[in-house]
Model the fold of this input.
Amino acid sequence: MPVGGFSTNRSGLPRPLGAESISTSSLWRLSSTPVRTAQRAGRQVHVIGLCGATAEEVQALVDRPVPTRATWQWPGTYAVLEELEQGLVLHTDPAAALPLYVVAWRGTWAWSTSARYLAALAGTQVDTQRLACAFLAPSVPVLASGRTYFSGVEQLPPGGRVELPAAGDRYTCSTMWCPDPRNGPPPHLRLRNALAASVRLRTDIDPTLSSDLSGGLDSTTVAVLASRAAPDPIDAVTIHPGGVLDGSDLHYARLTAAASHGRIRHRLLPLGDEHRPYTGLTGIPVTDEPAPSTLTQTRLLAQLRWMHRELGTRTHLTGDGGDSVLFQPPAKIADLLRHRRYTRAAREALGWARLRRTAVAPLLRSAAMMKTTTRERASAALTTELTSKVKQNRGDVRWFATLPAPAWADPSAVHLLTEAAEDHAAAPDPLPGLDASVRILVDEIREVARTAAADAELADACGIELHNPFLDASVVDAVLRTPLDLRPPLHAYKPVLTRAFAGLLPAELAARTTKGAFEADHYSGLRAALPELLATGGMNLAALGLIDIARFRDQIRTAAAGVPMPLAHIEQALAADAWLHTVTCTPEPVWVDSIPGKAE
Done:
């Protein structure tokens, strides 16, 4: 999967073993990731990743200045790179679904879509502060902005124009994408046009692709769109517990397949006890960072390998990202108050309170408090909130969702978290002026999109390209630019999506307001895997001095016994620990001197 290069074209630049050189530049590629190049005297422009631009539109990027909206103008997951005599200009994906990383190397910059490859080049180690942020503050992704899991390797800011000097001077970044509200077509038409184009791009590339069909709105919409765009019927896969054929998710999946007029070949994949969560955490393929599916990787890998073997799948679509893109954070109530939409604020607060079965008065009080709290002020208070032993009682409406640090966190890890919070508070916000709910969504979507790249690495190890059309920047842009007065109510379940595709989705599915829950599955998996977790869980984090292993395993034992508690810290720590095990046990990527135009 990795693609990369340097900010200079000097001689003697290395390449990863097996990499292919691209054009006459310093670019290299280790996979089939698309790279389209346009050139003229003294200038080359490369479009890296899957992009819906035509050949003429790619050529236009070199004939005139790269337009501001180049990285969200077309469907796909891509970035644009300009090669100039003085260095590189990288136009990064606003959604971060194609994250780009850099590391300083011998008087220049190396860049890549893989942080792990850059770490191997520069000889850097795992970043313990990034690890601490991952399992101590999983719901506050801004604490790790720009950091990767490898010291010295940085993620370039999403949605930016980044100048990487050839001589290795500090890079500069200008924010190009900001989802200010924009008038235009109704929200449902924007979403329909953008998402349909994103799915159609994938079917054009691989007409034989497959899709998830989980029974939820997001994956079902993607599957139906793909079935209508592909020339032949597509395979759509529903996984289910072995012997259980009457679940609600399976019902809606069957309903959709039956309504497709033969355009969907519905494939059922039963899974057994060996696919429970928390199983096989020491046998995960290596990735840039802990994958979202780490704890359920046996289930994901079983599905991917089965599809590759039985269906011949090369490209697979999912509905991942739909929840984040289509969600309305409770902070929207504060936005309504700030814009003096008092009646609507009260109405939406009441609807949210009914949905959550909670009192409306505390919700409105916390919204009023947030209305007068800037993001900068909330950032400055993060250190106190994250290190407090008591959960902050500020209701659902707040800038950051924090939990107290667990008792099993080593003081050194808490100190690293505090430093990260202080660094975040001192940094200027690259997207000032947005409504709070939109600003929160940007952080959420970018976290989901970037980490989804790790799931794509797991799929790549099975011979499959994984695609998440909801996370295309064109789709994200279409949704987030919706003016406040046109955004859906907090308590409504994806009304924009159901209206956008009302003619395509079965009416019974479009009326669905819930999705199957997996909490019981996780608790049963935790109990089944308890002996293994008590023997090996947390060993790698403890070796770095980040957790108290005895306390950590006591907490695992308590959770497995069914004592009600949040699992976020435990699950993120186990995922980080499993990733550490894999990174430690997997040989580093090898870099070699290159022969232009040849694979080493």
